[in-house]
Design a protein that fits this description.
With 482 residues, the chain is an alpha+beta fold. It contains eleven helices and twelve strands.
Length: 482
C-alpha cells in the first residue's frame, strides 16, 4: 500500500515538474500570438488593405487617363486605302496607331465626395480591425483564465489526496498496533481511491483547457506549453461601485465598434451625395493623336527633282480664241513615283491631333440615377439603425457585465467564508477520526464538502476576476493580470 501511495505522489510530482519545464506564456504573450495568427484578424487586415486601395483609386480618378492602341492588317480585293481614303483593288498591308487621354473637370462633385467617403471607410475599417482584435483578446483571456482555474482545481485535488494519504498512514499504524479495526483502514483506502479519481479528472480538465488555449493560438498540441500564474491583486471585500451609466459613457468614447458605426453613418451620407451627383452635367477635356501606315502609299506618292520656271498656256485672246497666251509658271521637274516612302515619313505625314471639351447632360437614363439615390438613402437608414443597435448592445453588455461582476463578487465572498468554516470542520473531524470519536462516513462527508467548497471558491474567484477585467476592458483599459 505504501508503494502505491509513493507511485501516486511520484506521478503527481513528475507531472508538475513536466509542466514547469514547458515554455511559459503570459497573458500578453498569448494575446500577441493570437493577434498574429488568428484568421479573423487576418481577414480584417485584408479588409483594411482593400479600403486603402479604394481610397487610393478615388484619389487617382482625378488624374487624366491615357490609352494607346495599335493594329496591323492585310486587305485584298476592293478596299479603301487608309492613308488616302481612295478605293483600290489590290492587296495592301497597313497599320494604325492612336493615343487618347481624358480628364474629368466637373461631374457634380462625385470625385470629391468619393474621396471623402473612402477616407471614412478606411477609418471605419481600422476600427473594425481593432474590434476584431479586442474580441480575440477577450477570447484568449477567457481560455487563459480557464487554464488557471483548472490548475487551482488540480492543486486542490492534490492537497486532498495528500491529506487523505496522511490520514491513511496514521490509521495503518494504529491498525497494525491493534488500536483500530482493519475496517477503518479499508474505509480510508476507499476514500483515497475516490480522491485519486477526482485528481485524474482535474488533470484531464487542465489538459483540455491547455489544449483549448493552444488551439486558440494555433500552437500544435505536441508543443511544450504552460502559462505564467500571475499574482492577482484585488480586494475581495470591495464593492462594485462603478455606475453602469458612467462605464457606458466611457465605453462610448473608447470602443472601436462605436466609432466604426458612426463613421459608416457619415460614409452613407456621402454615398447619397455621390449618387445625387450623377444628375449634374459632366464636363471632360479630351485629346487624341492618330496616324497610320500603308505599303500602297509607296505606289501613289509622287516626288519631283525640283521646280523650274516655264511658259505654259494661261489663257486665250479675247478677240481671237485660237490664239493661246503663254505665261511663266513654276513647274515641278521630272515627276515620278517615290518607292521609298518610309514608315517614319508616313507616321509624321499622316499624324492627326485633336483636343476638345465635352459636356454631357443627363436627360433620361431609365431611372438609374433615381434608383441609385434611393438605394443610398436606404443604406443611410440601415447604417443609422446599425449604429443604434451597436449602442444598445454595448449598453446591455455593460449592464449585464456589471450585474455579473457584483454577483461573482458576492459568490466569492460567500465561498471564502464557507471554505474557512469547512476547513475548521475538516480539521476537527480528522482529529476525531484518529481518536475514534467519528466514523469514516463523517470523515468522507467533511472531506467531500471541503473539496466542493474549495472548487466553488476557485470558480467564483476566477469568475470575479474575468468579470472585473471585462468592466475594465469596456473602460478602455488593457487586458492584463498585473
Amino acid at each position: 500500500m505504501i508503494r502505491k501511495l509513493a507511485a501516486v505522489f511520484t506521478l503527481t510530482l513528475v507531472s508538475g515538474f513536466a509542466y514547469s519545464q514547458d515554455t511559459l506564456y503570459s497573458l500578453e504573450d498569448c494575446i500577441n500570438i493570437a493577434l498574429e495568427k488568428n484568421l479573423s484578424v487576418r481577414l480584417s487586415e485584408l479588409d483594411y488593405k482593400n479600403s486603402e486601395i479604394d481610397l487610393f483609386q478615388s484619389k487617382m480618378d482625378r488624374l487624366p487617363n491615357l490609352n494607346l492602341s495599335g493594329g496591323y492588317g492585310i486587305n485584298w480585293g476592293r478596299s479603301i486605302d487608309p492613308t488616302s481614303n481612295d478605293f483600290i483593288n489590290q492587296r495592301i498591308k497597313f497599320s494604325s496607331f492612336s493615343g487618347n487621354s481624358s480628364v474629368t473637370l466637373f461631374n457634380g462633385l462625385q470625385l470629391t465626395n468619393s474621396i471623402r467617403r473612402d477616407q471614412l471607410n478606411l477609418e471605419a475599417s481600422e476600427y473594425d480591425l481593432y474590434d476584431t482584435q479586442n474580441d480575440v483578446a477577450l477570447n484568449v483571456a477567457s481560455f487563459y483564465l480557464d487554464v488557471l482555474f483548472n490548475k487551482e482545481l488540480l492543486q486542490n485535488a492534490q492537497n486532498l489526496v495528500e491529506v487523505t494519504s496522511q490520514q491513511l498512514e496514521r490509521t495503518t499504524i494504529l491498525v497494525e498496533a491493534g488500536v483500530l479495526p482493519i475496517t477503518r483502514q479499508l474505509e480510508i483506502e476507499s476514500q483515497l481511491a475516490t480522491n485519486e479519481v477526482e485528481l485524474v479528472r482535474a488533470e484531464n480538465s487542465l489538459n483540455l483547457s491547455i489544449l483549448n488555449l493552444k488551439q486558440a493560438l494555433q500552437i500544435p498540441a505536441s508543443d511544450p506549453f504552460d502559462v505564467v500564474i500571475p499574482q492577482f491583486d484585488f480586494d475581495a471585500t470591495a464593492e462594485i461601485i462603478e455606475d453602469p451609466q458612467l462605464i457606458y459613457e466611457n465605453a462610448m468614447a473608447s470602443q472601436p465598434d462605436i466609432k466604426s458605426a458612426d463613421l459608416k453613418v457619415e460614409s452613407s451620407i456621402l454615398d447619397m451625395k455621390v449618387a445625387r451627383g450623377a444628375v449634374s452635367p459632366q464636363l471632360t477635356l479630351d485629346g487624341s493623336l492618330r496616324t497610320n501606315f500603308s505599303d500602297f502609299a509607296n505606289q501613289e506618292r509622287i516626288v519631283f527633282d525640283g521646280i523650274s520656271e516655264q511658259d505654259i498656256p494661261i489663257g486665250f485672246l479675247q478677240n481671237d480664241p485660237n490664239q493661246v497666251v503663254l505665261g511663266p509658271r513654276n513647274v515641278p521637274n521630272n515627276p515620278r513615283i517615290d518607292p521609298d516612302f518610309t514608315f517614319s515619313e508616313q507616321f509624321n505625314e499622316n499624324l492627326s491631333k485633336s483636343i476638345s471639351l465635352n459636356l454631357q447632360i443627363p436627360v433620361f437614363n431609365r431611372w438609374r440615377v433615381r434608383n441609385n439615390v434611393q438605394r443610398a438613402q436606404l443604406g443611410n437608414e440601415q447604417a443609422e439603425i446599425q449604429a443604434a443597435q451597436v449602442r444598445n448592445q454595448l449598453r446591455q453588455s455593460i449592464e449585464t457585465a456589471h450585474n455579473n461582476t457584483n454577483a461573482a463578487l458576492k459568490s466569492f465572498q460567500a465561498s471564502t467564508r464557507q471554505v474557512a468554516a469547512l476547513e475548521r470542520t475538516f480539521e476537527n473531524v480528522s482529529i476525531q477520526l484518529g481518536e475514534g470519536i467519528v466514523n469514516q462516513v463523517d470523515y468522507e462527508i467533511a472531506s467531500n464538502n471541503l473539496f466542493k467548497a474549495r472548487s466553488d471558491l476557485t470558480r467564483a474567484k476566477y469568475e470575479y476576476i474575468f468579470r472585473l477585467k471585462i468592466l475594465d476592458f469596456y473602460q478602455g483599459k488593457p487586458l492584463s493580470f498585473d
